[in-house]
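ERR on first pass: missing label on line 2. Operator R.T. fixed the label and resubmitted. Corrected input:
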Amino acid sequence: MILLQVQSTTQPILLFGTMGMLALAIGLIVFIIFHQRRVIRYQSQLQEMEEEQQKILLNASIRWQEEERQRIAADLHDDAGPLLATARLYLNENLVHQDINTQLQSIYNAKQIIDDTIQLIRNISHSLMPPTLKNFGLESAVNDLFQKISGSGVVNASSRFHDYRQRLRPEQELLIFRVIQELVNNILKHSGSSFIHVTQNYNEDKFFIRLHHDGRGITQADFERLNKSALGLGLKNIQSRAKVLQAKIEFERDPSETYFKVTLEVPIEDYEMSN
Amino acid sequence: MWGITAVVGAYLVYFLITAPHDAFDSIPTGITSLTLLIYSIFYLFERMNDPSSLYLFSSPVFWIVVAIIIYSAGTFFPFIYAKNNMEEADFKKIYDLIHDTLYIVKNVIFSFAIMIKPKPERKYAGKTISKKH
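pass 2 clean. output:
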């Protein structure tokens, strides 16, 4: 009787216990499988978004290059071309049949025009690669740029480099300078600010450029939104340059809401410092 | 984890030396099943939290662990009750049914794990997904 009772209680426990344990085990495995699938889907989406962002930046970079080429082509065609054509007119074959005074006048005029053309080509060249940046470094180039802006009398522009004893690599300097140039350009075009101030610092293997202005600015959210949209070619260029520099760029508004701040943080440990 | 291994190992050695050899050893077998279950679940949760292990299903170790979980979970109760009820014909029938079925399932999953080919290394969202299993 006792044995029968034991048997009758043992078997359901055995069956239900085994089924319960199996259900728990299978449930756990199914949960892990579903979780992994969700992670894979999330990672795929993340990768797609990253690829999309890369495509936008690449397009922006190509568009910027094309615009730059068009600008150079227009400068050469519209300015240098007519100047040289005019100089050629002064120096045509009939010049030898004219009196000496007219000849001298023509040569003087042609010389003037050729000087203007040389100046024009120099300006184009300087806009492509500022000689101050190449020869004297980022600090001098930025100071030069800000002096020119301040000289216009519209905006009070100043720059201060606190820790720039060694020059960065030339390509780094050029990229940072282009980012500053683009930021300043945007501020002058859109913000209506009365001052622009740039500071430089070096701290814990990081090179900081901070730009303040008191006009209408953008925040990080605006920057990210504009980067994802078709608008904001200049901002996309800033983003792609920051990416090349492996730098972080942050747009923010100060807590007192009196000015906007842009911080460019360039890691230096991966780059060799060159003298 | 090493503590559990040491305690369980010491207990099993002690039981091997002291226990009589004429009956099914339910307690050490149950403890072994539980330990295996704990280790397997721990392994799975570790892999789940590892961002580099995206292709868990292509890993042979994952399937071996799945087989161990199913076998250990399914045979836990039969092992626990085996010592006192193995003499009963009805119990033996159910025990054999559960154990043999799970044994076959375990071996099928082991075969699958041996035949599976690990996925090559891939990059996802800036992270390197390694072949590490």
